[in-house]
Each structure stands twice: as C-alpha cells, then as structure tokens.
C-alpha cells in the first residue's frame, strides 16, 4: 500500500465511510478507489481533490491549491498514536518494538512525498534567469506536457516585444525543452547577451529568422549556430 493510500484509507475508515459512499460522491468507481488505497494506481490531481473534499477537507480555490495545503487537508491530528503504530508495525513480530508517533511535520512530509508523483512545482524564471515564483502542474506518466518535469519552466515576459503574437509583459509562458529550431513556433532563445521569446522562421538548415513585434514587426536573420534554442513555448497564462 502507498503512503497516500494508507492515509486515504485511514481517514475514510475513521469517518466510517464505505468505499462505495466515497466513490459515488467523487464520481469514480469503487474499484478505482480500492486500487488507490492499496497503492496499485497513481491518482490524478482532480480526483485527489474530490476525494480530499469528500473526506471533509477545507475548500480551496483551484488557483490557491498548493502542496502545503494538500498536506494540511486531512485531519490526522485526531488519529490516536496507537492507530499510527498499528499501521507502521509489521503484522507479525516476535518482540514488541516501541514506535514513535508521527509528528505533524512528518505527516506533511508524507503528503508531499505521496503527491509528488501527480503534482510538480515548476519554477517561474525572469529574463535574468532568476526564479521569482513557482506554479503547480500535473504530472502524467512521469512527464509534464510530454517533457522531463525537471526541465520545464515558466518564463515571465519582461516587455511587449512579442505583443504582435498576443504575448505581453508579465505574461507567463510555459516552455518545454527543445534544442533545435521549429519552423513557425515561438521559442525561448539565447543569442549574444539576449534571452528572449521569438517566432522562428527557417530559411534552411543553417539560417533562421527571429521575428518579434510590438507596434512594428521586426526580424533578425541569424545563423542557426549562433543561436541557443532553450525551448518551445506551448502555453501562455495571463493575469487579469
């Protein structure tokens, strides 16, 4: 059984809820919930939220949902140390061994560890490549948007030089790693002392046009060998 499954099962049984009751309220099958509790299935973030809410968690707006808040949702403080010990000790032991009760810090760590397979904090980087924030994104099959989660970043746009392509100052652009130029794509590139977003237009395998535009369109012809392609922009998030 997984740590997340242990905690879900413990809280459900403490509240005297059947799998059928929880599954019906969450819109999932009883078998699916059973697999989650027994550690045979990785739970997705939307399903985790429904189950946690069904188990009596505090409501949170999706944009405010964080790993720390997930760690604090289930009221494990009401579980007696004896129950904690019963879970952590082997079924059959020749000699009784004292087990230290699980502290609130350890409980939070268990939640963070259990949910790290479905949620990943992605850094928000500014133009100077300094982390200024982070956002949680779902992990599917060990990847974010098909890429290694450790290499996915948000880029905080520093100016309006890409306004012609509907990307404005302070927008957050999700960038996945891509080291080769992609014709027609908007990419995060580095050349000279610049780290910028540009739309890519390929002439051939050796030459590329870096397009940008605010009030007027501009294009810089470059040799592909002179440009470092950091990644491809796949999504833009704006602040209203």
Considering the chains and any ligands shown, give keywords for the structure:
434 Repressor (Amino-terminal Domain), single chain, elongated, Umud Fragment, subunit A, alpha+beta, nine-stranded mixed sheet, 2 domains, 240 residues
Describe it.
With 240 residues, the protein is an alpha+beta fold. The chain folds into 2 domains: 3-115, 434 Repressor (Amino-terminal Domain) (Orthogonal Bundle); 120-237, Ribbon (Umud Fragment, subunit A), CATH 2.10.109.10. It is 26% helix and 27% strand. The chain contains 7 helices and 9 strands. The chain has helices at residues 3-14, 19-26, 30-37, 45-54, 67-71, 81-88, 104-115; strands spanning 119-125, 131-138, 153-156, 172-177, 186-191, 194-202, 207-213, 217-223, 228-237. A 9-stranded mixed β-sheet has the order 2-1-3-4-9-5-6-7-8, with no helix packed on it. A hairpin with a 4-residue loop joins strand 6 (194-202) and strand 7 (207-213). Helix 2 (19-26) crosses helix 3 and helix 2 packs across helix 4 (45-54). The radius of gyration is 24 Å and the shape is elongated. Mean pLDDT is 77; it is low at 58-90.
Topology:
Layout (H helix, E strand, L loop, with lengths): L2 H12 L4 H8 L3 H8 L7 H10 L12 H5 L9 H8 L15 H12 L3 E7 L5 E8 L14 E4 L15 E6 L8 E6 L2 E9 L4 E7 L3 E7 L4 E10 L3
Parallel strand pairs: 1-3
Antiparallel strand pairs: 1-2, 3-4, 4-9, 5-6, 5-9, 6-7, 7-8
Helix pairs in contact: 2-3, 2-4
Would you list the SSEs in sequence order as H and E? Answer: HHHHHHHEEEEEEEEE
Question: Kindly, what is the distance between the CA atoms of the first and last residues, rounded to a whole number of angstroms?
Answer: 43 Å
Work out the number of β strands: 9
CATH topology-level name of the largest domain: Umud Fragment, subunit A
Largest sheet: 9 strands, mixed
The proportion of strand residues reads: 25-35%
How many separate helices?
A: 7
Spatially, the strands of the biggest sheet line up as: 2-1-3-4-9-5-6-7-8
